[in-house]
Specification:
The protein is an alpha/beta fold. 35% of the residues lie in helices and 26% in strands. Helix 1 runs parallel beside helix 4 (99-108), helix 1 runs parallel beside helix 10 (300-318) and helix 11 (331-364) crosses helix 12 (368-381). Bound molecules: flavin-adenine dinucleotide (FAD). Pfam families: FAD_binding_3 (PF01494).
Length: 396
Amino acid sequence: MEDSEVVIIGAGICGLATALALHRKGIKSVVFERSESLRNITGSAIGIRQNGWRALDRLGVADILRHTAALVKRDRFVLLDGGKQQAMPMDGETRCLRRKDLIDTLFDALPPATVKFGCQLESIKIDPNTTKPVLQFIDGSSIIPKVVIGCDGGKSIVADFLNLRPPKMFPLCGVRGLTNYPNGHFFEYEFARFKKGNNLVGRIPINDKLVYWFCAQPYVPRDGRIWEDPEVIRRSCLDLLGDYPQEIKEMIEKADMESLSFSRLRYRTPWDLLTGTFFKGTVIVAGDAMHVMGPFLGQGGSAGLEDAVVLARNMAKLGFNHVESGKKVAVHGIEEAFNLYVKERRMRVVRLSLQTYLTGMLFGASSWLNKVICIALLFVLFKNGSGHIDYDCGDL
Ligand SMILES: Cc1cc2nc3c(=O)[nH]c(=O)nc-3n(C[C@H](O)[C@H](O)[C@H](O)COP(=O)(O)OP(=O)(O)OC[C@H]3O[C@@H](n4cnc5c(N)ncnc54)[C@H](O)[C@@H]3O)c2cc1C
């Protein structure tokens, strides 16, 4: 494998966005992805609120993406048990993007050959003589880059190298899917959630034919391999939603089988985020590798986009010397840039993950006492429940 100065591990949302942010600042990077091709189907779609759109604007891809997804105008929560519902206008720009559109757009904006597929990182060690990181891949090859950015998701090898504690699991799982209505659907452009007992179904139209939905349900331990079968995934939802409205059951019945995915919900605890070491020398984490969180606020992906902008801005400001052949890494400057990035991001992700954690606990709480505690904490700590979307990651 050829050596390069700046290496990113993982070509998910955060890895691609980080490579693009660096590219916009004139910094070359190489992304190593373990899959053989772009992972643009898993997870079907992703809701992006105005903080995420700000980051996409800074990355220069927001306008392309706006054409792919309609504005979501309303937030509606329906309690099927008691027949109560609450609806309010959606704050700020909100759209639901097909993951394929987001991933493909980020990828297409990168210089050719930025992403190397089929390259799975196995371990990182520090060379005792040079103090540089040595990346070992499972095919036996190794490289010694100057800078390593771990965007390798919730089960991150780079986070392990930094001795971050392993993420925890919510006692919940999420199924996601897309349903295509060839003659058009009749749903409002709203983020609608339907709750009954411990089950929750969410629905957001992407455009006039395509609808994204998710189903959150209590986790029941079973052999993990059964979730590779889309029919099992679809059945698991339909079996739980016996007395849900017909239009919801039909939406799940008609789902595009390729789009179905099942995920256990992981999170890094807010207190681990408060105290964790996010970089060592010139090795750092971003995206889910840093702050994997439950989907209850729909902010994990947007937080990764924000990371990309803040990290590239600080790296460009402090981490490079200009030489005739281009920009060259200045190791001390990179460490200073990483320090600033962590300072800028730590409290943002602590607050996001705390609000997400409390919202998830409220959803899963079985006793009234726990519910009351979660509601009280949410009220005291997050008076404005959608204050998190006002965050601006700043210019690139
Ligand atoms: C049910 C559910 C719903 C969600 N809904 C939303 C939402 O509405 N809005 C939102 O903003 N977020 C949402 N999220 C969160 C969002 O999906 C994640 O935060 C986001 O995908 C994380 O991106 P990432 O690039 O950091 O990590 P990932 O998407 O996990 O990407 C990591 C990449 O690294 C690669 N990789 C891993 N290990 C290695 C290795 N050793 N070597 C090489 N490559 C490696 C993987 O193959 C992958 O391509 C949701 C999550 C779930 C589970």
